[in-house]
Specification:
The structure is a homodimer.
Chain A (H helix, E strand, L loop, with lengths): L3 E3 L13 H5 L3 E6 L1 E2 L5 E5 L3 H6 L6 E5 L7 E8 L9 E5 H7 L6 E6 L6 H8 L6 H12 L5 H11 L6 H13 L12 E5 L9 H10 L4 E5 L9 H8 L6 H11 L1 E5 L7 H13 L4 H14 L4 E8 L8 H18 L2 E8 L7 E2 L1 H12 L7 H15 L10 H10 L2 H13 L11 E6 L10 E7 L1 H10 L9 E4 L6 E3 L3 E7 L2 H13 L3 E4 L1
């Protein structure tokens, strides 16, 4: 067999002909193009640019950008511009996302080159071909993603490759681990740090704001970093913000936690599992939510946030994320498996998700419900209270000193005695109290039941409330951007309702929002009634 | 069981409060933003726009745009802009792609709304979940794609869902059919219209330009619509353009075909299988090329172009698209299956793809090789001649009057007698002759063999030539944009080569291209030598 050698490098005659003069021509001047390309690095090149012509760059090509320093190049997707007002032919336009990473002033000389696809893309191709990936592959993918080496379509390819049947539970663990490893992690210096997560989809489900004061009143640590709403009418951070400051720096968080054993803050500033944020930016418009991605997303964020004990709430309902008991149980087992592997003490509760929890939907309306429960007010929504007590009971039992089965009673005592309310007041004080305004929006409209065709039927019963549609109406009314906007439910499942009686009230601040919400309710009011 | 009714529509008190005044506020002024988003509809909204604030639009959201007329709305992906120079808050920016579809002047009042995902996306989700899709599903997907209702990430999701093991051969047929149905089709009014397609990846493989004159000289119809190079250093259209006009209108094509029984033109103007063009725009940056997509892509284009008989060339080689005989056979059977189902008379030949065919790589260099073969010139590349004769032989046997096994001899006669050359001259004349310039680029550099370490070995043998790398070097040199740029191979597989002897010459027109090509050859010269 012959001795095979790669005949590299070849002899280059007159290699010094590659002069600096030639290289100089390749420089482009940096220019900021104030377009928010949402977690994708995009650069713009003018169609008349010499480089575009000679190098065979094409729109959607990946290019690497160097500023001459020793820094590793940045990778971006190329868009082509035809307008000199936007960009001159000798300029390279940088979208907001990459301009910030570049961290060089406009006018800086840069060079661009064809970029190879990220090395880890071969793992994505293997995944697409049905192979199982190991820890190292997931880590390589997450590293490339967090360093902005993946375009949106490459991320889409990864997500679809991992979707549905495509991911073993051991792979979910590998991905979770990789997502934690490629971000920052918090350490609170406590051996028992509890957290709770609901997989979502149920409007008004503001139990977190009840659990935190109950649990902290018992003395356990519950540092709660929450999200703002993305597709829902209110996130916990939006709702807490009605009462207190939620945008706190890490030092302040530590101070509040030390003093009150809890906080309810916005987690968006910390780079906890940043890969998750990037994946979600693509998952959302794709309407993809595969179990593997969901589990890695939730658990990586919790581990990174320094939780040791976690309660997961899976609501079931026709318009919830999970629609059947068997689906919920399957998901529970996956959570348990990955939780165990990653060293979280994890419990799952399966709850009723057939309708919104509480009556208010929208930040101020939900905050009002929460405070009514804490104040043991006679018109507090009972379902919100009851669900919070059950979840709190499970979390309290993470405490080795709480006897199995006693959590619920303990939680009820903490709530009924006013100790939870007191703790909430202290937390609000410590975070920085807002002058809470529970007054709903000044534009108000009742959406009423109309079911009679013959005039015979006088009353009906609420059979179901479409979680998705009612959330949509609240969003159109202005929630969560306008804290006072949203929906207040007068009737819930099982309630009797008379012809013409109000099912709910829409609240808005702005006439255009108001009209859009009413139009949406007009098209589909989210209620199913039985006569 | 109770009688379930959807209590819609609800009673809307004072419905006339939705005034025109409110609706007016929602209007945006159209503005063209000269960014080429490459087959994706993108619109730009200013972050300070009232609508962005109140409606909860987010970057990457899909929106629908209406201009008040009865036309169906256009769908686009939203990008957010922070710079008033680019866009005012009351404006809606349209990328080139969608501005052309909108076909309204700048300043036109439009409204935007949240768009639902395209209805067919549910089929994509089913495909991702591992289900088999039927004809109707593929048709619905293709219709939505051709109407620009899919974002790039949704297309990526579809492609990945279909990739590899994910597509049954009956589904490949469904997709092919749907791709034909959603574009235009040509009908030449002849019962035997032949075509040939190579699945690609082999530089210099310009057999089409030999087949067409040979086949037409025999009197068969071969209307050849070819592509320009996308990722290769030359497409057939680029190479033919050295000799003749290739951008011909449909009437001209018919005229040339009637007179000469053949043409070699650029197919880019016809909307043949436009879905294919859109899918390729995403496949390419993803480096995806699944068998199902490849087959649907090739066969839909051929059926739409009016072919009745088709020869498929599958080259095998370590640096070709297909690397093994078993892989090639598997692919052949898929081509045969889908070809039969769609009513094409289809034959597949498996050929040697271990190195480039011919010696020239780049439009002018390849055109020169072709003409040398037609002219029976003593320095014509023998491998190109031989391959063309073999393929032509198979195509000639599509003619019922040609006896099985006689095709090759017939082809050789047509070539050796000068009849093929004559036909080529007539075709060139009919299409519009160019003043052919075969002179390669004025910047020239030999890339030479260097393998001696000890000074003992005086000669080596070429073991392999990396198709991909040599194509890359030719592209960097300027091909296909600069017709005279490219690479000319002095040594091919099996040739003896002495220390310091030239393996190939790089030709370029521009110094910067020249330097880049040399630098690439310096890094990896594409040759493997054995001592």
């Amino acid at each position: 067999m012959p001795d095979i050698v790669k005949s590299n490098p070849p002899i280059i005659k007159n290699a010094n002909e590659i002069t600096n003069e030639n290289i100089e021509k390749k420089k482009l001047k940096l220019r900021r193009v104030a377009i928010d390309t949402y977690k994708e690095n995009v650069v713009f090149l003018h169609r008349e640019c010499d480089l575009y012509r000679s190098e065979g760059f094409q729109a959607l090509n990946k290019v690497e950008i160097r500023d001459g320093a020793d820094k590793p190049p940045l990778i971006a997707v190329l868009n082509i511009v035809d307008d000199c007002d936007l960009l001159e032919p000798q300029e390279l336009g940088l979208s907001e996302q990459i301009f910030q990473q570049m961290d060089m002033p406009e006018g800086t000389d840069v060079t661009i080159n064809h970029a190879s696809p990220p090395a880890s893309l071969r793992h994505v191709h293997k995944k697409i071909a049905g192979h199982r990936l190991d820890d190292a592959a997931y880590l390589a993918i997450c590293k490339d993603i967090v360093e902005n080496r993946y375009s949106k379509i490459e991320i889409a390819a990864f997500l679809v490759g991992c979707a549905e049947s495509g991911m073993e539970r051991e792979e979910m663990y590998s991905l979770t681990q990789a997502m934690v490893a490629t971000g920052e992690t918090l350490n609170w210096g406590e051996s028992l740090v509890v957290d709770k997560h609901c997989i979502g989809g149920i409007p008004g489900n503001r139990t977190t704001m009840l659990l935190v004061p109950i649990i902290a009143a018992h003395g356990m640590f519950m540092p709660k970093t929450s999200s703002r709403a993305i597709t829902s009418p209110a996130g916990t951070a939006d709702t807490m913000e009605v009462l207190a400051k939620v945008d706190l720096n890490p030092d302040k968080l530590r101070e509040v936690l030390k003093k009150e054993h809890a906080f309810i803050a916005w987690g968006g500033n910390a780079r906890l599992s940043p890969v998750d944020d990037i994946l979600i930016a693509v998952e959302r418009p794709l309407s993809m939510d595969s179990p593997g991605q969901m589990i890695a997303s939730i658990l990586s964020k919790k581990v990174a946030a320094g939780s040791t004990h976690l309660l997961i709430d899976i609501p079931i309902g026709d318009t919830a994320k999970v629609r059947s008991q068997s689906e919920a149980v399957k998901l529970r087992k996956l959570f348990e498996y990955v939780g165990d592997r990653i060293g979280l003490h994890l419990e799952v509760v399966i709850t009723d998700g057939r309708q919104p929890i509480g009556r208010g939907i929208g930040p101020a309306l939900e905050a009002r419900d929460v405070m009514k429960v804490l104040q043991n007010s006679p018109d507090a929504p009972l379902d919100l209270r009851e669900k919070a007590l059950q979840l709190a009971g499970r979390i309290l039992e993470f405490d080795p000193d709480v006897r199995g089965g006693q959590g619920y009673h303990l939680a009820r005592d903490l709530l009924d005695s006013g100790r939870a309310l007191n703790k909430m007041k202290q937390i609000i004080q410590a975070q920085g109290e807002h002058d809470a305004n529970f007054e709903p929006g000044k534009l108000q409209r009742d959406i009423c039941a109309e079911f009679t065709q013959s005039g015979q039927e006088k009353s009906a019963v609420v059979e179901a409330i479409d979680n998705f549609q009612i959330a949509q109406i609240a969003r159109l009314a202005g929630a969560p951007m306008d804290k006072q906007a949203g929906v207040y439910l007068h009737k819930k499942v099982g309630d009797k309702v008379n012809q013409g009686e109000a099912l709910y009230t829409i609240y808005a601040e702005f006439p255009s929002d108001f009209d859009f919400a009413i139009a949406a309710a007009n098209k589909n009011n989210a209620y199913t009634l039985s006569i």
